[in-house]
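Lecture notes, unit on protein representations.

Consider one protein chain, 96 amino acids long.
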Amino acid sequence: MFVVIFKAKVRQFDDQYSQTAQRMRELALTEFGCLEFNAVTEGDQEIALSYWPSEEHIKAWKQHPEHLAAQQLGKQRWYEFYSVEIVEVKRSYKSA
């Protein structure tokens, strides 16, 4: 399993951002094999964690036309700065 860690400094959010974010989450979970998707915003900082079964799933998601358009809007309008890290989960624990 892999985790994509998206961190951003927010420039501004608007209604289009909320709609786009919801659509991207739906697509990731329903069409690209994303296992779980969580995002948190505090002040001007946003962190999103998405869990994927393979790097191939992540690559397909990254290249989807709607996602590419959302990435471009993010760069132009919504984010002052962002970073993406992809990590492989070696172990995972959960409480009962």
